[in-house]
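As a warm-up, study this chain.
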Amino acid sequence: AEVITDRVRAREAAIEAADTLAAIGDSLRDQLVVLDRNGRITSTNKAWRESSYRDWDGDMAVPHIREAGASYLLACDDMAHRSERARQTAHGLREVLAGHRAEFRIDYALPRDGHPQWFQLTATPMLTPTGGVVMVHTDITARRDAETALRDSVAQHRSLINALSEGVMTFDASGRVIAANPAAEAILGYPATRLQRASLDRK
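Now compare it with the structure written out below.
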């Protein structure tokens, strides 16, 4: 009877540990997917299961299938001819599964309210005897939007400077020329690349 009790307690402890791990996964905002060594989905978290991208695919997408037991690798292969990111993902996941790389990352986009929503997929090996891969899909839309806004701001600033009739030159902390607008080039009689080389030669 004591042996049976110990077995019951061990089984209950294992169930409790599994429930705790599932609850932790479901508490994450990032979307979590676990693949076995053959690339089949073994578990997912709430964020992934509740994602609204089930049937969408495009040239910047990767699969968002939710069925346990479905092959994520084969889904990537099926999308590869119409999505370069799906092709790269299939290749990267196979390399992680084979132990050829410790991590695979790729950014991809899915539509939301008429605009792309960007995610970063990070895949790392599952450190268990049976192997597999843990995939985390993180929403990086805010970061991508900030990067785009910064690039647009820099481009607008450059356009304004280039349109000025006054010569404008930019120097780094050591006094080296790093940029010059067309008016400065005309006044000095040298292109910006020549001015940059000349200031560097003086150092």
